[in-house]
Each structure stands twice: as structure tokens, then as C-alpha cells.
Amino acid sequence: MISSQRLVRAAPIDMRANYPFKRFNPEVAQPVRQPDVTGQAYHEQVKRTRQMLRSMTPEQVLEVIEFHRDLTFFEAFALAQKEGKLIIPNDVHDRILTETTDEQYLRQNYPVWIGTLVIYEVPDKKFGKNVVFSWKDNNDIEYSISFEVPKQFRGKANCALVIEHPDFELIELGNNRYELKVDVLSVYQIEQFPRRDGWYMYDAKTGIPHGRMVNESSDARRLWRLEDSSYLGPVACSVDVDGDVRWRYVRAGYRSSGRFGVALIGLGEAAPK
């Protein structure tokens, strides 16, 4: 079982100056029915919860997950660890954003941090021993997240490494520095990760864009990534609705000190109301 780690809560940051999303107002999360996880091994709880989410319709998923607003990813991770909950992965959000009919619900709750972490290098640069992503927030406070690349991925270029919550730890090193720790068996590699922003088809398992650039369409996904820096952090997802057309955005480059919503679910069995 992944152990919980104490995380320092980041100071509130106004993301409106740098990002094209409106900031959420604080909201008290509404309680939802909790699953029974008594007697189940932790990894089985995680497996069953993911399988359950992927077998349900988007409307059913919305009945059993809970949204929290205005959190940094560090705060979202700490909340999930404290309450023993799963941060909803990208592929589940993708189905909600493309299939649910409740547009008001989408506008109210998105964009969100998701439980899918992505690690990539600058275009054409091979993975070395470590990846370090550093940044300053709007208050000029410095942050960093470091990761030791597993040996089998070193020397590879133009690919992305993906890890799903809760298969990782964020270890506090002090002074807003964190280290990402994962079980190598939990790391999933996406080949042909795009070298620049654009519209792409997406990996069937994770929903992360990959392959060759395609024309803009509701079947493709709009990727936003950093082109002059490595990246290590969560994906944020959102949607724009234009009549009957929905444009899905996968934003793999936001700083974890930014503030978005997050969707959680308790581990174990659950069923729609």
C-alpha cells in the first residue's frame, strides 16, 4: 500500500493571470454514498474501483463521485490520501466530458486536476537518470518535483511516462521540493508522444493524446504541453461546447501549485443510486 505523506499546503495563488480558466469559488463537497471495502486487499480495492468506473455510464459515474473545488494538486493529493480515496483518472473524465448530456454540470465542475500523472522531456531529448520540473508561482515562490527514471526508460525520446493515482507517492523534501516515488510496474509508456501542441488521437488505455497531428474534430483531443521544458505532474482536463460539438482539452503542462477542482471516489465496490 502506498503510504501517506505529509504535504505542505501551498499558499493561495490566483491562476487567472496565466491560464484560460476561470477560478472556482470555494464549495463544500456534498456527501455521497460510500462503498464497503471491509476485508479487501488494498490493490484489489483500487482495481475494482477502476473497473467499476470504466463499466458505468457517465451519468452513473457522476452519481458516485464527489467534486472539490479550488485546490492545488498537492492539496488534492493530500485530501485523497487522508480520506483513502481515488483521484478519478483521465480516461473516465474523458467519457464524462464527451458523453454526458448535462452541460450545466460540466460548466460548474470543470476543469479539474485528474489522477493521471505525465512525465516527458523536451522534444527529441532522451530520458536520463532523472527528470526535475521546477517553476515559480505568481507570488514568486519556487517549487520542484523530481523523479528517478526507471532504467528501462532511460535513453528513450519523444515518449511519455504515465502513472495513475494512487500508484505513486509525493514525498516532501522541504522548501516546496517534492520527490515522486512509484513502483516501476505501475509506469505505463506512451510511444509517439506529441512534440508540440495540437489535435491528436488518443491512447485507448489512458486517454492521453499521441501519434501524428490530425485535423480538429470532436473525435480528437487538443493537447497542450510544454515545448521548452521537461514536465512532471498531473494532467488537467476541460471541455468547450459549441452546439452539438464538444472539444476535449488535455492540458499536460500546468504547475501543481495552480488551483482547479478535483473529483474523488472511495475505494471498493460502489453502485449508482
Mean pLDDT: 85
Q: Kindly name the structural category.
A: alpha+beta
Shape label:
globular
Strand content: 25-35%
Helical amount among residues, as a percent range?
10-25%
Largest sheet: 11 strands, mixed
Rg over alpha carbons: 18 Å
Secondary-structure element string:
HHEHEHHEEEEEEEEEEEEE
Number of helices: 5
Number of strands: 15
End-to-end span in angstroms? 29 Å
List segments where confidence is low: pLDDT < 50 over at least 5 consecutive residues.
Answer: 1-39
SSE arrangement:
Layout: H1 42-55, H2 58-64, E1 66-71, H3 73-83, E2 85-87, H4 90-99, H5 103-109, E3 112-120, E4 130-136, E5 142-148, E6 160-164, E7 168-174, E8 177-182, E9 188-190, E10 198-202, E11 209-213, E12 221-225, E13 231-242, E14 245-252, E15 260-266
